[in-house]
Amino acid sequence: MMLTLRIWRQQHANARGKFVTYQVKDVTPDMSFLEVLDVLNEDLTGRGEAPVAFDHDCREGICGSCGFLINGVAHGGQPGTTVCQLAMRFFKDGDKLTLEPWRARAFPVVRDLVVDRSAFDRIIQAGGFISAPTGSAPEASTILIPKEAADMAFDAGACIGCGACVAACPNAAAMLFTAAKLTHLNSLPQGQPQRDERTLGMVATMTGERFGSCTNYGECAVVCPKQIPLEFIGRMNRDLLRATVHRHREPLVVSGMAQYPFHEDEDAHVVRR
Ligand code: SF4
Ligand code: FES
Question: Are 217 and 169 in contact (CB under 8 A)?
């Protein structure tokens, strides 16, 4: 089949961008969307023109590198699908498609379809880690994790940091991403000692970046290729309230040991039972 692609071309962050229209022939239904761009780029390079820049790495929906708007929809609108996994069987011969980079103040365009998502990295740096010694792989099983908490952490940990949620949100808010990262670690026993600092740090960094605020549109969850639920934003808000006002939170119980966060009380201590 043949497609007409109207693609945003912008040489660098400070250049003026514009849409340029290209025809791509010999597209087959089992090609991915990125493979179509590969075909286009081979053609452009052969003609001595600059290829279209786009981010990619794994091409199997796990790294979060790829992503752009296809006809205004982040990742193209197939549920649970990144643009690298988007097969051309969802399109038809003669389709006219408009490709644009994520449009958000916090994600400035680097070139063509590539945006700078380092604001996400700064949110992670503000608390997306644990400092508990986890030991070697067999020792990981010595801390028992309730099934519900493990499932919650697993679901939240599925976020690949692609940025589609920000691109889809009318406010360009990063709440779904930040909520997923917080829920991942705040659900686990190993994440409890730094739960408050993590929540306060990541939310403050998110607020300090140029993201908007959540006003419950819910567009983020609709386009999320990992189907991160809106419910996690509620969890983040509860954790934020807890971190702000709740100085005497419940103890963490690990293998018969009650451990209180070191920063919380003057007499922070570890009690062996
Ligand atoms: S929450 Fe979903 S859309 Fe947002 S960065 Fe994570 S995977 Fe991408
Ligand atoms: S290239 Fe890795 S998620 Fe698409």
Answer: yes
Distance, C-alpha 270 to centroid of its chain: 36
pLDDT at position 186: 97
Closest ligand 1 atom, residue 166 Cα: 4
- 52 in Cβ contact with 40 (< 8 Å): yes
- Cβ burial, residue 215 (10 Å; 0-12/13-18/19+): exposed
Q: Is 148 exposed, middle or buried (0-12, 13-18, 19+ CB in 10 A)?
A: exposed
Decide if 151 contacts 227 (C-beta within 8 A). no
Say how many Å lie between the CA of residue 82 and the centre of ligand 1.
Answer: 10
Sequence-distant (≥ 6) Cβ neighbours of residue 258 within 8 angstroms: 251, 252, 270, 271, 273
Residue 100, beta-bridge partner list:
69
Q: The tokens of 45 are what?
A: 């390079």
Residue tagged 């309230």 (tokens) = 241
pLDDT at 272 (0 to 100): 36
Distance between Cα 174 and ligand 1 center (Å) = 9
For the chain, residues with pLDDT lower than 50 are 256-273
Q: How far is the CA of 149 from the centre of ligand 2 (A)?
A: 27
The token pair that represents 191 in the structure block: 């994440």
Question: Phi then psi for 125, rounded to 5 degrees?
Answer: -60, -25
Q: Percent helix, strand and coil across the chain, each rounded to 5?
A: 35, 15, 50
Mean of pLDDT over the chain: 91
